[in-house]
Amino acid sequence: MHLLPADQLEPVTAWLLERGYAVASAVTPLEGGLRASQAEIARALRLPATAAGNLDAMVDSLRDLPDIWGTSQVALLWQDAERLAVAEGRSWWLLAEILDDADDLTVVAFGEARLGRPKDELR
């Protein structure tokens, strides 16, 4: 997983597309925790409905990304990833670890560039 400031979204997207990646985009929901974020990522990656609410199903479904997308070069651009990290740090690490372990997935998590930003400013 690559962690980058939010202002790098456009250049990273262009770089991935130029290299033939299939690009999926997910945004951490404003009011969501682990399950809402998981559902958004599952939607973005075109995973089966079971992957939206079951972590084991998500792990299993991630193995099928080349079949789902027709390529082994799939990238997930996860915007506002810091929102989940700040609200539920343990949930962020769990979901990030699952995504990072997927063999055919490149994950780029985008967050706020400024360190020390108060939690309530992230909403």
TrEMBL record:
| Family in the record | Belongs to the barstar family.
Every Barstar (barnase inhibitor) domain range: 39-104
What name does this protein carry? Barstar (Barnase inhibitor)
